[in-house]
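Need the bound structure for iron/sulfur cluster, inputs here:
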Amino acid sequence: MKFLPMSDERKNDFQLSKQKLILPKDQHNWIRPVVQTGFVLFSIFLGLQFHSFVLSLSGPIHEPVSTRPAAVEAYLPISSLMSLVYFIKTGILNLIHPAGLVIFTLTLVLALSVRRGFCSWVCPIGTAEEWVHKIGKKVFGRNLPMPKWLDMVLRLLKYTLLSFFVYHIFLMPITALREFIYGPYNRVADIKMYLLFSNISTTALTIIGILVLLSMLFKNFLCRYLCPYGALLGLFSILSPARIRRNVDNCISCGRCKMACPNQIDVDKMVRVTSMECTACFSCIGACKVEGAIGFSLLRKKIGISLVAYAVIVTMAFFFSAQIAQTFDYWQSETSLHLYRSLYNEVAGIRHP
Ligand code: SF4
Ligand code: SF4
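Answer from helper R.:
Posting the output first, comments after.
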């Protein structure tokens, strides 16, 4: 085989790409897993606190009831959406699940400003999903790619679910919204959810088992195809000025970013990642070995946001929102412990209105 001599131009390109290929930049890749684990541990702590609250409700009347952790209301997004719609329609901020409304509104504001980081940094279900697909990769040797056409069809599922909720909630008359929000079902929605998981049925266990298996086989199956909350945040994130941006002048089109993306986004073909599926996980940036080829920034690259800065923004946003809400007395439910106790005694008979 005969090799042709390299032209000067080609030599320059080669030198340039050699200069660009600098060392692993992964030194901060541990930050997101640490933040995720922190939120998972916090959720477990909330779960244990809520467990002792529920147990104390069934105790003797003269014994004090344990503290109810208001942050569990983060697990009531539909109730929070109803409260938000009620606020939009009436201007009234109800006090049934105020912490839920604060957290829900914050996730929307975050999606509007710095995209769907809630899904890949905060949500414990998103984290569990990520752990499950990593386990799946170890067990089966790899995660299966979803065919593009099927991926598009399945992604419609979460938007269909979202449309169903949003359509019905927005169309509800104010009186019906008020009745639901202040009614007994909504007041004990957190306890209902607790009882659903603490006395889990075989059907629910089977469904969870199927979802776990699918998530082991396909990356982010639950979040990508079935979560209406993620769909809502995705829609809000379209309006965000923050984006993953690829610098085509520096990029050497190696495709590592695309390979690293858990959401099957063709990052290596885009200048700006505008997809609603981008969860700002920074995996593409962490995988890229070329200085200045890819980054996350606001307003046409004017304000770059590093992985560390993003971690601080997301965690501090949750911490300070809770502090501010408590300062303004908008955190604890107005439902008295006495009312909680009496509703708990008849919780089995309280049905969805
Ligand atoms: S941006 Fe993507 S394709 Fe370009 S160099 Fe980095 S990893 Fe490779
Ligand atoms: S494009 Fe990058 S930041 Fe967005 S989901 Fe894919 S890997 Fe994560």
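Comments: The longest strand covers residues 242-246. Strands lie at 242-246, 272-273, 294-298, 303-304.
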